[in-house]
Each structure stands twice: as structure tokens, then as C-alpha cells.
């Protein structure tokens, strides 16, 4: 099929317009001399077979004027030689980027048509040139759009082959493309409204924007450590964007589609711990998975509320649907409503064309995780309550209600009942959320988990940082068991990550951050001094009983089960102790 065949309909329309406007006939041929489109009159009078050499001549010369059809040099060999129905033919070559793609003929079958053209030859030359340019531009743009759309489709398709998150940014850092995996990773925000600054840490963002190449570097993204690679896109020596890959681990390759079952199992398995609390928690998660009832997770910071919310989602029948997170502290109050409930076009100045779905809509059929619910502004609490009562939302500026099928999981480290008393949290909302309450105990109350968690994090960071640290010294483990962990599991994880970076073999007390090793030293010193004062008190009592002379000292040493020399050494301390206690 000839290239111009694709544009037949458009050419027919243009030819009809020329015919109406100029009262002249018109035809377009491809470079193989096939008639592509013409006026009815042209087809009737000349048929669809054209004298090929004349088309070749136009292609060679750019244009020709056949003002005596049938009698000119180019008519030699034509079947209409000496009896051509046309009175005049004005032909131009149609080119795209200097490449001939066809020929257009302005034709008349009347004497008046012939005279009109020959008497105004400059005008008609100009008109024909402009029509030719118009046709080539229209074809070019149409093809370009088609090519661009096809390229976009191809790009999306290519990016979706990868299980890794693939993002393309433009020269300003705005996200132009994201594959399915990236949209899922950033499902808590609308990826296409983000810039690279909002999704990657600042140090990486500035290097990417400078056109630097990054290969498998670790960054904390959406609360997890991931590997980031970036390749600048250069056009005409200018930075026009970058292709970014975010992967779970170095080994992630372009493999099969994610297995949601595996994903689901892994998520609950990600919750480590041997304590009764953890075992009980897992049992509870399996039990409530099939339900769509609202869950309220409470617990101190870093106890794993976010991890648990994900596990509930992936354990449930909604596992293949979106998991959308809202951190109630990170959205400014003024944007809260439009972010969470979405908005309609024209709802406010700056509102996007076509409006924007809110996070509730994005979570349709899935789960919405409202983190730090205790921080939710009061007016928003009223709106949320309405959603939980009616399971419909209204976009800002919208007039209709949109039904939502979403499971709500909320989490907080605040005492909501105390907030209710302070009139900072709605009681009715609290009861709506607190259908299935789950409390995550702090790490200090489940010390049995410290060992398994430490081992787990050691494994994780050995793998991530490509190290082979074998384990922890007894002193470190003792410290871990004694420490009160105000930052809970997050704090433990951070210490282990630091230590895996620092250690040269087994993790010792010197490999953990200074703040902790110092605490350990102080704790040990205070234990030592406590032990010593108890010991000295016992020596004193024994000496009081047996006498402070040589014989008494020997009897006291025997009674206390210590060597006489040790007793004399300790006595020196007693002298010190005596002076301290008599002061
Ligand atoms: N039982 C667990 N097993 C393994 N990792 C855990 C466990 N609990 C928490 N973590 C890890 O500890 C870190 C903190 O967990 P998470 O962010 O879920 O805590 P959170 O309670 O939501 O904290 P915050 O209230 O500060 O948001 C995460 O990296 C998480 O993967």
C-alpha cells in the first residue's frame, strides 16, 4: 500500500475544498503514479490511470505547467495524446523533508478554466504551492502525532515489562512516565504530579538533575531501602531528562509478573519476632483478613504499624488491588480535602483540567491506610466520618456522590481517648475506626523479639550492603537486651544498619553509634559501683563480727570465700568508703 493511501480521506476533503473554492478539478497521485484521490469530474474524464512519465517529470523538476495537454513533450506516449480532455494541468510535487511523496494536479476541462489559470499564472502558482505545503504539513504532523503516540505506547509497554519501578522525568524534573510498578510504589500520591525532588532524596535528585549517571545506589524511598539507578537522556548535547529505575534489591531482574500470592505471604512473614505478642498478632491478622471492617492500630513510634497495615492488606482478598497510604501529618490542612477526596475541573484556581481523583478513589476496591490519624484536622475528621458512614465521597466542587469500596486501616501513636477528652479528636469517629483494635506493644515489653529482629536486620543489611558480618558480640547483645528502645524496632534497625557499615568482623560495642556505646559504658559503671558497695558492706559486717585484727581478717576472708590478699585489696577501698560515709 502506498504511503499516501493512509491519508486518502484527508486528501479527498482537501480536493473537495479546492474544487469548491477555485472551481477547478484536482487530483493527487503517489510517486508510483497511482491515483489516490480526485474530484469526480477528474475521475470521469481521465480515469484512474495516469501517464507515468509526466508524474516522473514533476518529481524530477518540482512542477510543470501543461498548458497544451496532448501536444507537449511530456504527453508523448500518453493514451490521451492529441485528444486530451483537459484544457490545462498544473502539477506540483508534494515533499516531506525534501523527499517526494506524491504529485498534485490542478486541472481544468474547460476553456474558461484554462484562461483563468494562464491569465493569472503567478497567482495560481502561489495557490498551488501553498496547497502543496499545506498537504505536506498536514501529512507530516498527522504522522508525527501517530508516531509519537505509537512511541508512547511502545515506551509504556517496554517499561511495564520490568518488575522494577521505572520513571522517566523531563528536564525540569517532572515525572513524564511511570510504569505500573512505579505507580504502585507511589500509590499514596499521584505520581504524575510529582517531581524527582519529591520522590528521591535531595542528594540524589541534584546529581540526577546535573545529568549524572547513578548505578544501584541505596536510598530510602517510601520508608524502605531501595536501589536507584539513573541514566541521563541527552538530545543535541542538552539534558532533556532522565530514566530512573528503583528496585527492591540488586538481583531484581526483568522477570515474570509479580506473584501476588508470594507477595502476600512475604508480607506477613516480614513481621519478625518470637514473642507471644507477635505470634498472637499474626493469628489475628489471618482471622480478620477476609473482613472489610475498619482496623485501628495503636502503638509507639517504630513498633511496625505501617508494616502491619500492609500485611493486613496483602493477607486480605484485596491483595491485588491498590494499597494507598495517607500520612495525615504530611498533607497541609488547606490541601487535605482535595488530596483525599479529589476535585472537579474548575473547583478552584489552579485546578487541573478534567479534575483529579482523590486518594479514596485511587484506593477503590483496595485498602486505604490513614497513618497518624490522631493528627487529622477536626474539619477533616467530620468528612472522614461521613465517608465511613456512607461509603461515598464527594469531590471538591463536585455535585454527585461517588461510591467507594475501600477498607480503612488507621494507625496512631497518640492516645486517642485522651485526645477526645481534650476535644481534639471526635468520639464518634473513634468508635467508627476502632472496630478491630490492634495494639502493638513497645519493644521493651517484648524483649524476646530483640534477638530474632537483630538477626533479621543483620541478614538484611549484609545482603543490601554486600557485607558478610557474622554476628554480634555478647556485650552488644546484652546491651540490646538491657536498653529501653524508645524508638522501638526502627531504632534497632538503624543501629544494626550503622554497625554493618562500621564492623570489620563480629559487631562489637565499638561498632554501634557512640551515643549507645557511651550509654552502655555508663550502665556498666553504675552496675560495677553498685556491686562494689554491696561487697564492701558485706566485708564490713564480717569484720565487725570477727574483729578487725589479723585473725579476724583471715576468718572474714574465709567466710566470704575470698583470698586474704583480695580482702586486703578491698580493704583499701573500705578505708575510702569509710571516709566517704563519715563525711
Ligand atoms: N516485627 C517486625 N519485623 C521486622 N521489621 C519490623 C517489624 N516491626 C517494624 N519493623 C520495621 O521497623 C521500621 C518501622 O516500622 P513502621 O514504619 O511500620 O513503624 P510505625 O509504627 O508505623 O512507625 P511510626 O509511628 O513512626 O510511623 C520499618 O522499617 C519496619 O519494616
Automatic annotation (TrEMBL):
<dbReference type="InterPro" id="IPR003593">
    <property type="entry name" value="AAA+_ATPase"/>
</dbReference>
<dbReference type="InterPro" id="IPR002197">
    <property type="entry name" value="HTH_Fis"/>
</dbReference>
<dbReference type="InterPro" id="IPR025662">
    <property type="entry name" value="Sigma_54_int_dom_ATP-bd_1"/>
</dbReference>
<feature type="domain" description="Sigma-54 factor interaction">
    <location>
        <begin position="271"/>
        <end position="501"/>
    </location>
</feature>
<dbReference type="InterPro" id="IPR058031">
    <property type="entry name" value="AAA_lid_NorR"/>
</dbReference>
<keyword id="KW-0804">Transcription</keyword>
<dbReference type="Pfam" id="PF00158">
    <property type="entry name" value="Sigma54_activat"/>
</dbReference>
<keyword id="KW-0067">ATP-binding</keyword>
<keyword id="KW-0547">Nucleotide-binding</keyword>
<dbReference type="InterPro" id="IPR025944">
    <property type="entry name" value="Sigma_54_int_dom_CS"/>
</dbReference>
<dbReference type="Pfam" id="PF25601">
    <property type="entry name" value="AAA_lid_14"/>
</dbReference>
<dbReference type="InterPro" id="IPR025943">
    <property type="entry name" value="Sigma_54_int_dom_ATP-bd_2"/>
</dbReference>
<dbReference type="Pfam" id="PF02954">
    <property type="entry name" value="HTH_8"/>
</dbReference>
<keyword id="KW-0805">Transcription regulation</keyword>
<dbReference type="InterPro" id="IPR009057">
    <property type="entry name" value="Homeodomain-like_sf"/>
</dbReference>
<protein>
    <submittedName>
        <fullName>Sigma 54-interacting transcriptional regulator</fullName>
    </submittedName>
</protein>
<dbReference type="InterPro" id="IPR002078">
    <property type="entry name" value="Sigma_54_int"/>
</dbReference>
<keyword id="KW-0238">DNA-binding</keyword>
<dbReference type="InterPro" id="IPR027417">
    <property type="entry name" value="P-loop_NTPase"/>
</dbReference>
